[in-house]
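for the recovery benchmark. tokens below, seq after
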């Protein structure tokens, strides 16, 4: 039985990864999860300089999920290269580094710094506000997404995967822009923008007013968007959004994703990723599936 998948020439032992921002850099979970069993660890977003993140409160529960407005708090690329990569290299898993920035130059700086490190791939978070475009996210305008993807491809030594925002009119337009600009893969979906109001205190539940919605409630939207993109582009897709079980993960594979990332569920069940790895294998045995790639895009 073969569970290996390949994305942009990088082979993964299975299609299960962590979603950026929900797993730290892996070490926080290493006492619960055998990182050697994961296809990849996708790290928290890393910027060219340390980011403080947003004021608190910045996380709140909602029906079927959670809202977060962490603001991509991170220690910056210097600390990340010195501290986090060596720790992750102790494990037999692929390393995908999530990259964030406020300008194209910020992203380029991080991508260049990572070029000389022993990582496998980069995931580019284009849901960051573009300070030069009136704070509209890089991933919300197709021409903006095209430009940043093309620029990063000039500087990247490792494959780059563009993480698409669902907060757009037509997700396939963004997928096509990323592909046309040379992206090696795309991942989707990032969080949906949401809001919660505390009616007793008559104020917003988050200091930032809005936050990113994640968790099981967004899964049907995510599956639909992955299916649309899989039928619009030829590059591989990593699907995510509300994955809690192996059944959820298999839905994404059948919709056309080559691999999946598990996010919010890590907060509820730290064993979720390895349970999903086991569940996919059990499903393959149950249905006599020899190669996990048979499931990818099985539904047309």
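predicted aa per position
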């Amino acid at each position: 039985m073969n569970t290996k998948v390949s994305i942009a020439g990088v082979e993964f032992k299975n299609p299960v990864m962590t979603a950026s921002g929900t797993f730290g850099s892996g070490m926080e979970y290493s006492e619960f999860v055998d990182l050697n069993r994961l296809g990849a660890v996708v790290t928290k977003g890393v910027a060219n300089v340390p980011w403080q993140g947003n004021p608190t409160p910045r996380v709140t529960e909602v029906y079927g999920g959670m809202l977060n407005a962490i603001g991509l708090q991170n220690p910056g690329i210097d600390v990340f290269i010195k501290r986090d990569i060596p720790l992750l290299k102790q494990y037999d898993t692929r390393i995908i580094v999530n990259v964030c920035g406020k300008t194209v130059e910020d992203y380029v700086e991080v991508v260049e710094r990572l070029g000389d490190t022993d990582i496998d791939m980069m995931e580019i978070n284009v849901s960051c506000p573009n300070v030069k475009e009136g704070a509209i996210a890089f991933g919300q305008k197709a021409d903006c997404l095209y430009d940043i993807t093309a620029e990063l491809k000039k500087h990247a030594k490792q494959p780059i995967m563009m993480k698409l925002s669902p907060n757009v009119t037509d997700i396939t337009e963004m997928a096509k822009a990323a592909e046309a600009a040379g992206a090696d893969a795309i991942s989707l979906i990032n969080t949906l923008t949401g809001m919660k109001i505390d009616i007793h205190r008559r104020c917003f539940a988050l200091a930032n007013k809005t936050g990113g919605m994640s968790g099981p409630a967004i899964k049907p939207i995510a599956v639909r968007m992955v299916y649309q993109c899989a039928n619009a582009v030829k590059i591989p897709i990593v699907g995510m959004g509300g994955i809690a079980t192996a059944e959820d993960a298999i839905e994404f594979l059948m919709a056309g994703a080559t691999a999946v990332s598990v996010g919010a569920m890590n907060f509820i069940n730290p064993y979720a990723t390895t349970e999903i790895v086991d569940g996919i294998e059990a499903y393959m045995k149950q249905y006599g599936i020899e190669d996990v790639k048979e499931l990818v895009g099985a539904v047309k």
